[in-house]
Specification:
Length: 733
């Protein structure tokens, strides 16, 4: 570029900057101007070597976005500064830390949110991901300004897409129609929504767009004449009432005309309300509502209204805060005309939405349809709130009940709030869930119980050998994951029961006791169980061992006991004995992560019984009191004394797992640690909780904490460990 061209460009940049300050909707203090100046300088420096596709200096884009934010949306200095800086972290050498250091935490957080959003773009079919993407945007950011600036950014991109490739234009335009126009509508930025829709149509269906645009231009003269004719009829009546007003004709947007033509299958000429007449009146707050209805009655005196087309958004404003009276009347030449009646305040809120709310503090509309509006109203009602705090006070989290996370390929998954990597694994596929070995969130390994947040990228690590254990139920929160884990554990238990059946047959033969239905029934009754599967399973895991079977054999030879046993056996429970399930005997309460057995009392307010979902509450004088999770007092205890709550759950003591510490000593050699861990992991019924190896001067010592179902399994494991080459001693601590 020549020096003259650079000089001209610099002048233009300075000019744009001055205009930015001049058109700002909020009044800017000196500090505000300083902040904006500093952001401007950093942006100019950061983008100095960048050009847009059209060839102009890149800096014009952030300035244009800041101008939209300042004048059309009317946000505060913080937002204007963030808009100037919105591409700095994404495209230049400046880091988020630099921004935070120079502009403080709020600006940095907004810029970070904007950078995250630009990372979300995936070259996929937008429509498939649109709804999730839209919700994702809303949950990803705590600060609604992120979304508003993103909408301004998108508007400017749409206004300046001419020099792009057609396929790129189509992609960006369809994404705008799917995502950004509805978002702008939801936040109440109606003017921007309309412009985004029209520009979207311009690039997705250029022929249709140009044809309608041409027809609107051709009919403009006729339209102006019609509005004049309409206005002349009511002018005298309005003037008589001394109402200050202006009447404008507003053509319907090209997009909405196109939608009408499509939905009603009509031509351009047959769309009857191609424009609306807007009556904007000037008044003080006390007469505002009264005057709206007065104008309504004047209009309907002259023109017959269509009673089904009255929309009263003054008595009950829309959730975005939009207020107006809409009526459709039969105008001159027998044409239906939509008439919108708004005060200047309402008009400004309709055009600027969000910011005008702040300007007119009349927050007495209680019926906001969406939660966030109620929060917005609270902010409006307090007169000392400044623009920054005003945004801080509410968050646009419309989807507080769900979160949106990514697969490694960039697909979006919706999960309930509180979901963990375990839930995510099952939401992809049952097989992946059942084979879960671990999880990475945003590239880092995390426990399977970690609570996921919107925007996380989750990768599940699977293994052919992995299979569910009972702890998984503590990690999973979704019904789908829990049901699959339960049915897998049931299968596993049935397999153990099969083995147990074979073991029991052998052991009974050794005791010279026949293996038949009568014996099975006696055994089930003797061990106070419910089903034959319960019996086989407990033999399989070793809870019912040789010692216990000898006790049963001894009781058989005692005729008196046998007589009572027969009596008991004839009780109705006998019909359940062949049921195809392994029942749990909830008879033991354990506390905390380590599942310790502690002293407790059951609370009288909810009287929990074994098997209920419960929690422990550490009282001041009575030790641990156990309450049901749905106890009437639970919420109050959990919110006021969260630090005194401990996890608690009922367990079946015959299926309980025990913790044991094994100590190993031996001669250190290559691969010893591997041999030890392989031996443990090959043993299906053992879980490692903690492992610690040390080697000093050729001597090896190790401590391993394992979880086992019973002593037999532990003994077997220790015997196997002793056989490993190099191990000298294996003891239990």
């Amino acid at each position: 570029m020549t020096d003259a061209a650079i000089e001209k460009e610099n002048k233009e940049i300075a000019q744009q900057y001055k205009e930015l300050l001049r058109i700002s909707y909020q009044t800017l203090s000196d500090d505000d101007k300083k902040l904006i100046r500093q952001a401007f300088d950093v942006a100019v420096d950061a983008h100095k070597d960048q050009r847009r596709k059209s060839g102009e200096a890149y800096i014009f884009h952030p300035i244009a976005v800041a101008k939209i934010v300042a004048s059309e949306i009317g946000l505060d200095a913080t937002s204007i500064a963030a808009a100037l800086l919105h591409d700095v972290v994404e495209d230049t050498q400046y880091t988020l830390e630099d921004i935070e250091r120079m502009f403080g935490e709020t600006v940095a957080r907004i810029v970070d949110g904007l950078t995250k959003i630009s990372h979300l773009q995936h070259d996929k079919d937008v429509s498939l991901q649109a709804e999730n993407f839209r919700k994702m945007l809303l949950t990803l950011n705590d600060d609604v300004r992120v979304i508003i600036i993103k909408i301004a950014d998108r508007l400017h991109n749409m206004q300046t897409m001419d020099s792009m490739r057609t396929d790129k234009q189509e992609k960006i335009a369809s994404e705008t129609l799917y995502i950004y126009a509805p978002l702008a509508h939801r936040i109440g930025l109606y003017n921007i929504k309309t412009e985004l829709e029209d520009l979207g149509l311009k690039y997705t269906e250029p022929d249709v767009y140009n044809e309608i645009l041409q027809k609107i231009r051709e009919s403009k003269e006729e339209q102006d004449a019609y509005i004049k004719e309409f206005t002349d009829v009511i002018k005298n009546s309005l003037d008589k009432e001394n109402i200050e007003y202006t009447i404008k004709g507003r053509p319907k947007s090209i997009f909405s005309i196109r939608r009408k033509m499509k939905n009603q299958n009509v031509s351009f000429d047959e769309v009857y309300d191609k424009f609306a007449v807007r009556i904007i009146y000037n008044t003080d707050a006390s007469n505002e509502k009264f005057l709206a209805w007065k104008i309504y009655s004047i209009v309907t005196d002259h023109f017959r209204p269509n009673p089904t087309r009255l929309r009263d958004w003054i008595s009950s404003p829309k959730s975005t805060g939009y207020e107006a009276l809409h009526i459709t009347v039969m105008g001159p030449k027998g044409r239906w005309v939509e008439v919108q009646i708004r005060s200047e305040r309402m008009n400004e809120i309709a055009e600027k939405g969000y910011a005008a709310h702040y300007k007119y503090k009349q927050g007495n509309q209680e019926d906001g349809l969406e939660e966030w509006v109620n929060k917005l109203q609270e902010a409006l009602e307090s007169s000392e709130v400044n623009a920054v705090d005003f945004v801080e006070q509410f968050k646009l989290n419309l989807y507080s009940k769900e979160i949106f996370v990514f697969t490694p390929q960039g697909d979006l998954k919706s999960l309930p709030k509180g979901a963990t990597p375990m839930d995510f694994a099952f939401s992809i596929h049952t097989e992946i869930g059942l084979r879960t070995r671990g999880a990475r969130v945003n590239g880092k390994l995390v426990p399977l119980s970690t609570e996921l947040k919107s925007g996380d990228q989750v990768e599940i690590i699977t293994s052919e050998k992995a299979k569910p254990n009972s702890n998984w139920l503590d990690y999973a929160t979704t019904a789908r994951a829990r049901a699959k884990i339960k049915s897998s554990l049931k299968e596993e238990k049935k397999n153990i029961a099969e083995e147990g059946k074979a073991v029991l047959t052998r052991k009974l033969r050794a005791q010279k006791i026949p293996f038949n239905e009568k014996t099975i029934n006696e055994l089930v009754t003797f061990f106070k169980l419910k089903t034959s599967l319960d019996l086989f399973y407990r033999v399989g895991v070793g809870t019912i061992d040789n010692q216990k079977l000898k006790e049963y054999a001894a009781s058989r030879s005692n005729a008196l006991v046998s007589f009572f046993k027969n009596k008991i056996r004839k009780s109705p429970t006998v019909s359940d004995i062949d049921r195809d399930e392994i029942t749990a005997q909830y008879d033991q309460l354990v506390f905390g992560r380590e599942e310790e057995v502690l002293d407790y009392k059951l609370a009288n307010c909810c009287n929990p019984i074994p098997g209920d979902s419960v929690f422990g509450f550490v009282t001041v004088s009575e030790g641990i009191k156990v309450h049901k999770k749905d106890c009437p007092n639970a919420i109050q205890l959990q919110s006021n004394f969260a630090y005194r709550i401990i996890q608690a759950k009922w367990k079946d003591s015959s299926q309980e797992e025990f913790k044991a510490v094994i100590k190993l000593t031996g001669i250190d050699n290559l691969g010893l640690v591997n041999d030890v861990t392989m031996e443990i992991s090959n043993n299906m019924n053992v879980n490692i909780r903690n492992i610690n190896f040390e080697s000093t001067d050729g001597l090896f010592t190790g401590r391993i904490t394992v979880i086992v179902k019973n002593n037999n399994i532990l003994k077997k494991l220790m015997e196997h460990l002793k056989k490993i080459n190099g191990i000298d001693k294996v003891t239990r601590e």
